[in-house]
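User: What would this chain look like folded?
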Amino acid sequence: MMNKLADHIVSGYDADLNDLNAKLSQMGSLAETMLSDVIRSLKKRDNELAEAVIAADSQVNRFQEEIDEDALRIVALRHPMASDLRRVMGAVRVANDMERVGDLAEGIAWRTLSLNEVDRLSLAKGVARMGKMVKGQLSQALDALLREDTDLAVQIWLADEDVDEMYNSIFRELLTYMMADPRTITASASLLFIAKNMERIGDLATNICESIYFTVNGTQLIRDHRVEKARKNGK
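Assistant: Here's the prediction, encoded as structure tokens.
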């Protein structure tokens, strides 16, 4: 009887963790789709896609609420320890990051709707290319999350400088546009906002990588790989 009870408890615990991971995976897929769609809406000047991204944000928010509630229940009832506790808390951290991705994608969608009302700037294509880079970064981070792949997480974390450099380049070019032709200020400001949101999404992808690394190893990626990142930056 005691063995059956223990098996039931373990089985229930595993089911709770699996359900938490499933919701996290679904939330990640939705956030990734929102980012992909908003990039396409910017590139193709597609208002319908932008509006779909805005509508999807509420679903991302619901996923975060459910994950927070599930994690709290697991901690209260199952008392996880060590790696199990890190997995639960890591899920909460990643869900928070993905909720922010949804918010930022929604913000891009609103700006895209405004941009579609004015003449296109040539730099819009450059911002879309930046979005594609960030989308790849987020996709890889979510793949690393699914497989608990710390090697891939570290690679993504180290590559974040590439996104920062692209953002800085776009920032300088947009400032030049605005100074050269005041008529482009409104559109340029919207593109600058979009580029900044994409850069922030890149940062959130690196946050996810840090959570993966801590969940698996129990140590901070920032501390363990400070030297490698400094070497990559030539310092």
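Confidence is low (pLDDT under 50) at residues 1-9. If you want, I can go into more detail on any region.
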